Amino acid sequence: MSAPETTTDVPQDFEALKAIILERKAQLPKRLKQVAAYSLDNPDEIAFGTAASIATSADVQPSTLVRFAQHFGFEGFSSLQQIFRARLRERTPGYEDRLKALRGNDHSRLESGSIFNGFVAAAHRSLDNIATSVDPEAFEQAVDILAKADTIYLIAKRRSYPISSYMAYAFGKLKVKYQHVGTAAGIDDDMLAMATKQDAAFAVSFSPYASESAAQARLLASRRVPVVSLTDSAFSPLAESSKVWFELVEADHAGFRSLSASMAFAMALTVAIAEKRRRAEDAAAI
């Protein structure tokens, strides 16, 4: 059997690597596809894990990681890891680094007020962007999918969790049936096992993506439960699992990103779902 074709142009950054992985994923051998999925869902683990620990988590042999790296033109797995490490340095500065960036933004006078103004300005930019980036037809389609669902499953972790928490609170007040995935009791798998094709899910994850959220969205999609998602890239692992997905990149101030536009989107979606359900119930009662 001939060896799998390798790429001649070595990706120079994480976005380029993601693009070529997604472009060629259908042609990848089974095990390499397994590594590709794990890499996109767990970029932090690829950046800092050992070959042995990553192979165990991805359920492949360590030699498969080397073949995966070489398939995309790298000399070995350690060379591939440098791409993932560079991504973290570029896109996810540590909180100490973010505070240093604030100190470098000339906040010598009225420092706290300047920080406040910086975050307000970032929130304005985010809201301006979302006003023009959300396709009204796609939004209507998302509302239609979720409004028709018997139960809406809300999936989010880490920075995205406040969004699903707000939606859970609002759905409760609006009498919309939901399940908030992410229980302290650790019964997420049991909860998701109850989902059917008559239900739907709304998933949220931003880079660096929560691997558990991506896996839960994939699981539901594989069982033909429609998924709507909010994320920040066309290459997000949520995109491929979703019937409808929205790309929203929050503006930042000194590396800190708020959830201004994301919360506005969540509020609009929640209320639109409740209103559509109310109209459908009123029409059925006539």
From TrEMBL:
Boundaries of every HTH rpiR-type domain copy: 15-91
CDD domains to which the protein is assigned, alphabetical: SIS_RpiR
Read off the PROSITE patterns from this record. HTH_RPIR, SIS
User: Residues in domain SIS?
Assistant: 142-279
Asked if the Swiss-Prot or TrEMBL record annotates the protein with the keyword rRNA-binding, the reply is no
Where do the TM regions start and end? none
Q: What is this protein called in UniProt?
A: RpiR family transcriptional regulator
Originating species: Sinorhizobium glycinis
